[in-house]
Amino acid sequence: MRLLLGGMIVSLGLWTLPVQAQVTNTQVGAMVEALRLAAPKTAKQNDGLYSEWQITPGIIPSWSKQCVGKELTPQQLETDSKTARAIVSCITRRELQKQYASTKNETTAVRRTACWWMTGNASACNSGLTATYAQKVLSLYQQQTAKKPTPQG
What is the pLDDT of residues 15-66, one digit of tens each? Predict the structure, then answer.
């Protein structure tokens, strides 16, 4: 009985969390696309970064394990764009949610998520190239969220 009551209290507590703290699939999709479009274009075939999102190889096994349940090599990620998008979406959702929950501001959350994506530190993009990158991602994100779905048929 005590466990049941505790579970009900926890459930009620979770039920009352503010809905606005949750990021939507649309926001995650826009962020993922903005990160892809803002990814550095090195013009080198073997630049040491992988997928359309230009991910550093050291993080790929961990992220793939977290998000798709198995460790992938950078080469596997490079050749499977659908899985790469799923992994980026998973990681982006986690970070965007974290930043949105802490700031309660979509623009700031997007900028901080872009900064985290680039540097590993959400507050490290106050000037220079990292600030320019975070602003570019924000602009691309805003373009993505402003797009109207095209009618089917």
Answer: 334 444 689 999 999 999 999 999 987 666 666 789 999 999 999 999 999 9
Cβ atoms 51, 76 nearer than 8 A: no
**DSSP three-state, residue 93:** helix
* Residue 55 three-state SS: strand
126 torsion bin: left (phi>0), alpha (psi -120 to 50), beta (else): alpha
User: Which SS3 state, helix, strand or coil, does residue 123 take?
Assistant: coil
- Coil, helix or strand at residue 50: strand
18 by DSSP, 3-state: which? coil
**Short-list 140, 92, 94, 90, CA closest to 117:** 92
The reported pTM is 0.80
Number of neighbouring beta carbons within 10 Å of residue 57: 14
Degrees, nearest 5: CA angle 138-55-147? 30
Amino acid at 80: D
Q: Which backbone phi and psi does 50 adopt, to 5 degrees? A: -125, 145
